């Protein structure tokens, strides 16, 4: 304890020395060792795209926590705009550029800031300098400090690297050919014999990669690979989406749980916890709060010592202060937890557990006789819910009751029209895109409509393995009619495409469309008085004749008229007037949910799937209908095509583009 207090006192004193001295240049006067410091690039900061250079001054021959860091930087002004910052940083207007200033701080602070806060690798290269050269360097920096200089700082030529190299040139009498390129300065100094060793301080991301590599080379790998693979595990751990990152952590943590999870060996459980702690150490302080909370989800003996490290003030007092979610991967459950506010409004959004069944024999949870999850027994008999459905636990007369909260970014629990899965794209806008429901809904609707309208499939023919399926979809999307051999339907065809490639294509189309669905929605809503009951009767006849139309969905808080800056799109494929004649029942393809029936009221408020949030109101409008396009589409849709003649063209396993008017069967 005395040792800890001593370190605390030392670092507080050290901080005061640097804080109280405006120019603490005296800290480098007794330097015995100088090192070059290279900091890796940082995403999102253009002036740091090529790394950063600093100098480290040590009062002893060995590097230590007493060392001082000095860097040449631009003297930025507070509150200046990006345009001014760019113009001054580039120095494109002569002396309209930044002045150079020197920043001094303890190296330990500098290293932690770069590696922990900014997630950048730090390399230290001790320099082979004589005592005379070191003193000359110290004198140069002291003079640079004390004298007014006309030197200007420019991001690309007169930058951190240039001024550090200039100082080293003055001290050594050498002539460096490379001065302004931070990533090349180390090689230039090696060429002159100034560098013979290096010390690496990895960033959080680099540490995380090292731990992942160790993990998938350990005995745990074969067990973890039953849940995921190294590529997906790594991608989720580096994801900016909290759900994805926590998913990966819980896949690892699940290996330490009791049955029905996969690892029963105590040593392997301990190893799983060790790797969990290693990965936990690579997270930011904000991220660590999430993963401390995860540890409250179990009382497994092997986790008790880990839970004990959580400060008592951060532990939840009630289990109902958590939201729990289960992520199911290959039928194996992985628990996800996040904080939630508990109030009376949640009861209005709740569904009770009467639609789930718990089997005491195998501790599994079933929905309509299909296993959807497992039960995890903690201090209270906690239930684990079906995929992506939030829940909380309440105690009533010694009985545990699970309350389920539907989430906007939840996956569909019930296939409302499972028989129609074959006629939809084999990708889900909500669960397959990193941004959840902000994926590519408009593009998916457009592609779905194109495939329904202009693609025909011949499953008895040979599949061409070299077929560029993305290019084929793009041709169909842009108006071509194509016969495709070897596949029975849309789902069969698109499930044979690499999902990452399909996602990339859909995002590209989404950007290409870029029709601002929110504005289209508002425009349509503004003109809604022109859309009458007769309009929808006409639409009913069009859809029944084969036309499919997009419905743009806008959303507001319940009772509000202010629309949120997000929208959604579904494809209407069938329509009937409701029995109460107060609206229409519309069969829609929803990129998030598949096929189901939505209800559209006379006020244009639409009731989407029951899995959408209940605290929002949803409104729908039609796109402007192009009569000529509809006439052409319906005319071709209702042609009696000579399928036998078309089939002969696909015998060789090759798709072909055709003009449907040439294949009419009279």
- Calculate the mean pLDDT score and round it: 68
Counted beta strands: 24
Q: How many structurally independent domains?
A: 3
What percent of residues are in strands?
A: 15-25%
Distance between the termini: 95 Å
In helices, the fraction of residues equals 25-40%
SS summary, helix count: 22
Name the poorly predicted regions: 1-23, 258-263, 296-356, 375-420, 516-522, 524-531, 625-640, 662-666
Characterize the main sheet. Answer: 7 strands, antiparallel
Any idea what the radius of gyration is?
32 Å
**Could you say which structural class the secondary elements and strand pairing correspond to?**
alpha+beta
